[in-house]
Amino acid sequence: MSAPRTIDLFAPADAPARSAPQTPVRPVAPREAPRPSASPPGVPLWLGVHVPALAAQSAVGASRILQSLAMRAQRFTPRVSLAPPDGLLLEVRSSLHLFGGVEGLRHAMTGECAQLSQAATLAFAPTPLAALAGARAGRPFEVLDAAQLTGSLAPLSVAALRWPEELIGRLAGLGVRTIGQALRLPRAGFAQRFGAARLADLDRLTGRADDPRERFEAPVRFRRRRELPCESASHALLTAALRPLLDELGRFLAARQCGVLALEYRLWHRHAAPTCCVLRLGTPLADAAQLAQLLDERLRTLALPEPARACELRAGLPVPRVLQSSGLWQPGEQGGLAAASGVELIERLRARLGPEALETLTLVSDHRPESAWRVAQPEVCLASAAGTSHRPSPGAERPAHASGVGADRFAPRPLWLLPRPQLLRQRGGLPCWRGAVCLEGEPERIETGWWDGRDIARDYYNARDMHGRRLWLFREREPPHRWFLQGVYG
User: Fold this and answer.
1) Residue at which a domain ends, from 206, 236, 264
2) What range does the domain containing 390 cover?
């Protein structure tokens, strides 16, 4: 008898059969890769915050506390959403490495709640509704892997979804008391009996459907009110009640890297109309201590009609401010900190004497010398000291039409300009001012102002009188070609 024929089951179909017996080779199964402990970076991770004490607050009080907590939470992530009346949601996947992971972020957020005297329960989950449900459950809930979400939600009560009591009672009559039991019900029958909206809730809960959340936007203007412990007209009590409001304003502005140019401190009375204390600033400020000093100066000048029972702080529209670092020189060395000291002095004088007590000169983008400046409040001066420079528009750097010296480089201007040009006598076609004058250099021609009916066409000259004083003169280009004195150099 011939040896039995062995067929290779792993050989191609058209391959010849092997006659020699062979030991079959078993394929080795590949080693299973370790399962990741968390979802990849692209998968969202939501932090749900539940504040149980807000249920006992009024609607206005709960909303105010929730918004304050949301503003504090924006230092962890810009994606913060309100879940009224007692919940908050933060998308924190990209923020974990900045705050020491999940535990570090949990500790930091708990501290923010404690600063508002609120106890909160926190939960982490890949979907926002799951994070809220886990936080409302009142026990540790932390799911970082989306594959484990359904199993982790199963033991939670359906009451965590905040469905109507009537619906929860109907589910309980069917023996459905947990989320896992609700998920095991047939989808078509669940939608027919309890509504498609509740089935959509379950889909958003488990991540089968998107759950977009409206991002919280902090209020643009700052406005806070505080009741006083007792009616009082004491300056010390009013300033003490103001300080916490200013501290909160400082945090409000620091989060936006902005400052304010106007503050209003309003005092409410029992019978009289509210008393308003307005502080106007020349440069954007955000430091609470400096604002407190300036407001204190204004409060000292107030005369209250009767004791105050509440106070309110209102801030103007936040404006960007220039952030500064400390200078190399100490005060008194090479002018160190002189600009900052000047800003503080001017602000204090404005607060004590009123905003109209100080004035400054500012440039105007106009080629006509008599119209190139105006009297204004010290905003421009203070902004220059704070690190920003005020420059005229590019059109003001060169006259509309120039020849001679002004054609290549803008000629220097005298510091002292006359209030209005002074008509000069002429002798032999040349100007005279306390005697003969000598013209120097090439003329500079300025022709502009046609758009407002005050157009000029002049040729400007530098000149010296008999005593060596430098003058700035011009000659009209239109007949009768008169000469005028415009300014005197120092």
Assistant:
1) 206
2) 360-396
15 backbone dihedrals φ, ψ, rounded to 5°: -75, 145
Going by C-alpha positions, the residue among 422, 284, 414 that lies closest to residue 347 is 284
Question: CA torsion, points 104, 61, 221, 347, in degrees to nearest 10?
Answer: -90
Look at the chain and report how many structural domains it folds into. Answer: 4
Question: Is the bond preceding residue 85 a cis peptide, omega within 30 degrees?
Answer: yes
d(CA 303, CA 318): 29
Is residue 40 domain-resident? no
Residue pair 383/464 in contact by the 8 Å Cβ criterion: no
- The DSSP H or E segment spanning 200 is helix 196-206
Is the same domain home to 88 and 191? yes
The whole-angstrom separation of Cα 113 and Cα 55 is 16
Q: Is residue 333 part of a domain?
A: no
Q: Does residue 311 sit in helix, strand or coil?
A: strand
pLDDT digits (tens, 9 = 90+) for 17-45: 444 444 444 444 444 443 444 555 668 99
Q: Per residue in 236-274, pLDDT tens?
A: 888 888 899 999 999 888 888 889 988 999 999 999 999
The Cα–Cα gap between 59 and 43 comes to 34
Please count the other Cβ atoms lying within 10 Å of the Cβ belonging to residue 100.
12
Q: Mention every residue, 6+ apart, whose C-beta is less than 8 A from residue 399.
A: 367, 406, 444, 445, 446, 447, 448
Q: Is residue 22 part of a domain?
A: no
Determine the length of the chain. Answer: 490
Assigned token pair, 79: 């994606």
d(CA 472, CA 415): 11
